[in-house]
Design brief:
- The structure holds 2 protein chains of 2 kinds.
- Chain A is mainly beta.
- Chain A has a single domain, classed as OB fold (Dihydrolipoamide Acetyltransferase, E2P), CATH 2.40.50.840.
- Helix content of chain A is about 10%, strand content about 40%.
- Chain A contains 2 helices and 8 strands.
- In chain A, the strands form 2 sheets. Chain A has a 5-stranded antiparallel sheet. In chain A, strands 2-1-3 form a 3-stranded antiparallel sheet.
- The longest helix of chain A is centred in the first third of the chain and has 6 residues.
- By secondary structure, chain B is of the alpha/beta class.
- Chain B has 13 helices and 14 strands.
- In chain B, the strands form 3 sheets. Chain B has a 9-stranded mixed sheet, sandwiched between helices.
- Classes of the chains: A mainly beta, B alpha/beta.
- Chains A and B meet through α2, β7 and β8 of A and α3 and α4 of B.
């Protein structure tokens, strides 16, 4: 992940900031330029919940090179409420513990690192509640 | 009145037992357990470091403080395992909690007392009226060289304290800092593991420094050990803090609540600060708390806190430190997984 891309996404990755449409109230995470429901371009800042439930998951056993020390690791789609679903790693959880509907919360973790000399990218992973 | 308005800790869930390390190196586990008074230690996951643990500890502190993070005027993380050699840890933390951009930030280093340094400066800035709130953190994911005595104790954890003048949970009554140039423990630039002076780290370093600070703090405050409900000292192993506390005049009952080392290990910059969070979890209004940190090199920061009427109302707003320490979700690692998690294995291409 390049430093500029990482920097642009900090509000979402660090603070779970979302955009709430001023016209129809739809919450968008990550924010978009236009509301897909009513096409409005006016939003106010909000934050998504830091608690949710696992909708579905898979286990990554053959990881990309940056994640070799974490394999096998689960990746899940998590329902955060307000019709928001996020895709993230599940940490502190053995693959056999995972269940659909399992309550989780978001925790601040290191997401990846650019080799031995690049930036460290931080953001959210979910952990069992 | 200036003091702590919010506090929180974070302890990772992984653990490794003394026996697991000892069997790899042919060491006698019972003698290590007896000598160090240590049974197991916490281990960070590969995706955890000083920054991630500091953020989680601070979130717990914010739950108890109930303040707007934008009002935090300074962020100080003390650690000897900052993830970057050049780039602050505090900027990531401040961004993650929403304290940017109007905020002063510095990363502190002074071996194991970097955390209490951050606390002291944060408290002093608030006392001087420079800002409404300031945040001091002690956090570490320190390493001991494979097979070295330090490997049995070097662990991971963080504690965060928000200082302010309104809605204080524990008033800071007195502080004192004491330091000399004592080369008992060090890590040269580009070295992965620290070096230490063996037994030299004991009497001329740890004991002399903590006792120097503690005695000066007691004289300054005109208080006696029996005046205090709780006392906590830096805990490089389980034995040293109990020994130094008794030499000063404290009893086991005063030190047990903050004595986490036997199952937590030595969290370095987090050690006495995490012990303080455990005390604040149970302290009652009016209780006096005595804390002295220690950092090799060498120095100590001493604090006397007095719990206020507000403390019991916020203790349960975030997870208690001992609940994290004794969590049912603890995961015990074998030595191979531990070395992988701690980056001790050289991979192809490295």
């Amino acid at each position: 992940m390049s430093a500029p891309k990482y920097w642009r996404e900090m509000a979402q990755r660090y603070r779970f900031e979302a955009a709430k449409c001023k016209k129809c109230g739809k919450v968008l995470f990550p924010p978009r330029l236009a509301c897909p429901a009513c096409k409005s371009r006016e939003f106010e800042n909000t934050r998504i919940n830091d608690k949710g439930t696992i909708e579905t998951y898979t286990i990554v056993r053959i990881p990309p090179s940056q994640f070799t020390d974490e394999a096998p690791y689960p990746v899940a789609i998590v329902n955060m409420g307000d019709n928001i679903r996020i895709l993230c790693q599940v940490a502190d959880c053995e693959p056999e513990e995972l269940k659909i509907g399992m309550p989780v919360r978001l925790e601040f973790r290191k997401i990846q690192q650019e080799g031995k000399s690049g930036i460290l990218a931080y953001g959210y992973k979910c952990v069992p509640e | 009145m200036v003091g702590i308005v919010g506090y929180g800790a974070y302890i990772p869930r992984n653990r490794i037992k003394v026996e697991e390390i000892a069997k790899v190196w042919g060491a006698d586990a019972p003698s290590y357990k007896r000598g160090l008074q240590l049974r197991e230690k916490s281990v960070p996951s590969p995706d955890q470091d000083t920054i991630t643990m500091s953020v989680e500890a601070t979130k717990n502190a914010l739950k108890r403080a109930g303040i707007d993070p934008k009002d935090i005027g300074a962020v100080y993380i003390g650690s000897e395992s900052h993830p970057y050699a050049v780039k602050p840890s505090g900027t990531v933390l401040a961004e993650a909690i929403g304290a940017t951009p109007d905020c002063h930030c510095a990363d502190y280093e002074f071996a194991c007392k970097a955390g209490s340094e951050g606390m002291f400066v944060a408290m002093s800035l608030v006392k001087a009226g420079e800002m409404k709130y300031a945040l001091g953190i002690g956090a570490d994911t320190s390493q001991g060289a494979p097979g070295d005595a330090l490997e049995y104790s070097a662990s991971a954890g963080a504690a965060a304290f928000i200082f302010g003048k309104q809605n204080v949970l524990a008033e800071c009554l007195y502080t004192h800092s004491w330091m000399t140039d004592t080369p008992d423990f060090w890590r040269r630039e580009h070295q992965f593991y620290p070096s230490h002076g063996g037994r030299f780290t004991g009497e001329p370093a740890y004991f002399r420094t903590i006792m120097g600070c503690a005695k000066a703090l007691l004289e300054k405050s005109k208080m006696k050990p029996e005046d205090f409900a709780y006392a906590v000292f830096h805990q490089p192993n389980g034995k040293f803090p109990m020994t130094v506390g008794k030499r000063i005049g404290f009893k086991t009952e005063q030190m047990e609540q903050g004595w986490l080392c036997p199952t937590l290990g030595n969290t370095y910059s987090g050690a006495s600060p995490i012990g303080l969070t455990s005390i604040l979890d149970v302290a009652k209004p009016g209780d006096l708390i005595f804390m002295v940190s220690y950092g090799s090199g060498a120095g100590s920061d001493g604090f006397i806190f007095k719990a206020t009427d507000r403390l019991p109302g916020v203790q349960n707003r975030a997870v208690h430190t001992r609940a994290m320490l004794d969590s049912e979700r603890r995961k015990y690692l074998d030595y191979g997984t531990y070395t992988k998690f701690r980056g001790k294995i050289k991979l192809r291409g490295e």
